[in-house]
Amino acid sequence: MMAALARAISRATGTNVAVETLKVIMMFAAAGALLSVVAVMIYRQALKAALF
Residues 15-48, buried b or exposed e (16+ Cβ, 10 A)? Predict the structure, then answer.
């Protein structure tokens, strides 16, 4: 799956994308998404009070 995704990105952009590079990028993206979810869970009450 990762190899197919790397080939598709390589074809679309015209650059050589290695599978390992793609894994690192996906790990950072997943960590950022997780931190965003945690921040929303923590500050949900304050966000509700500020918006309404």
Answer: eebeeeebeeeeeeeeeeeeeeeeeeeeeeeeee
